[in-house]
Design goal:
It is a single chain. The chain is an alpha+beta fold and 100 residues long. The chain has one domain (3-97). Helix content is 41%, strand content 20%. The chain is built from three helices and eight strands, in the order H-H-E-E-E-E-H-E-E-E-E. The chain has helices spanning 3-12, 17-28, 57-75, and strands at 31-32, 35-36, 39-40, 44-45, 80-81, 84-85, 88-91, 94-97. It has a two-stranded antiparallel ribbon. The protein has a two-stranded antiparallel ribbon with strand order 2-3. Strand 5 (80-81) and strand 6 (84-85) form a beta hairpin. Helix 1 (3-12) runs antiparallel to helix 2 and helix 1 (3-12) packs across helix 3. It starts with a helix and ends with a strand.
Length: 100
């Protein structure tokens, strides 16, 4: 999930600026490295994804996922059964998009 798009969505949702500022500060310092056997890569900045194991990560992922579903529905694509939108079926972080 793109941090920029997530923060934009939180602003549009009316989340107080002070909370968004804390999240931007927190996520702007997110770095990672890859370990393979005994080798460790250089550290790099992470611009996507939620903090693994973070307390807020499930909530932030839900906000991002809802934004994704809203965009699919608004595009006019997707599968409908009667009047119910079924264009995106999710379980945890697994996503199945049904586009016709």
């Amino acid at each position: 999930m793109s941090h920029y798009r997530l923060f934009t969505r939180l602003i549009k949702a009316g989340l107080p600026k002070c909370i968004i500022d804390v999240l931007v500060n927190w996520y702007s310092k997110l770095t990672s490295a890859v370990k393979w056997n005994t080798c460790i890569s250089r550290w790099f900045i992470v611009c996507n994804d939620a903090r693994q194991g973070g307390v807020l990560s499930p909530v932030l992922f839900t906000v991002f996922a809802n934004m994704f579903i809203d965009e699919i529905r608004a595009s006019g694509l997707g599968c409908y059964i009667l009047d119910m939108f079924m264009g995106c079926i999710m379980y945890a972080d697994d996503v199945c998009c049904l586009v016709v």
